[in-house]
Hints:
By secondary structure, this protein is mainly alpha-helical.
Amino acid sequence: MPDKASGKNADRPGLKQAYEYLRPGDALTVVSLDRLGRSLEDLIGIVGHLKRQHVGFVSLNEKLDTTTPGGMFIFHVFAALAEFIRTIIVANTNEGLAVGFGPWVPGEPVVRRVTARSSPRWLACIPGAD
């Protein structure tokens, strides 16, 4: 069942359809762990729901199968890593927006001079920049 909604939302029509379709002994299979959910809380909640329904979970990219004890352990490790990476991406995006753009007037081009005060990390990468 294809689901076009983002993995960061636990309340998705495709996921609800999958819940209704799955039967005990089945396994919900996704291409990648981050397609099911982006937060550790959501992933554990979804896999917990599946487990209570006697349904397994398989992630193809991570070669993960929660129907085994080892697979369940690896699931928890990968879920924690996926949330960590998402947190890093969000933090870096917010930092870049705060440093790079500042106030912007619609219709004006976005041109910024990089200075040591506005972005010391960028200047450290430019030879001879002070």
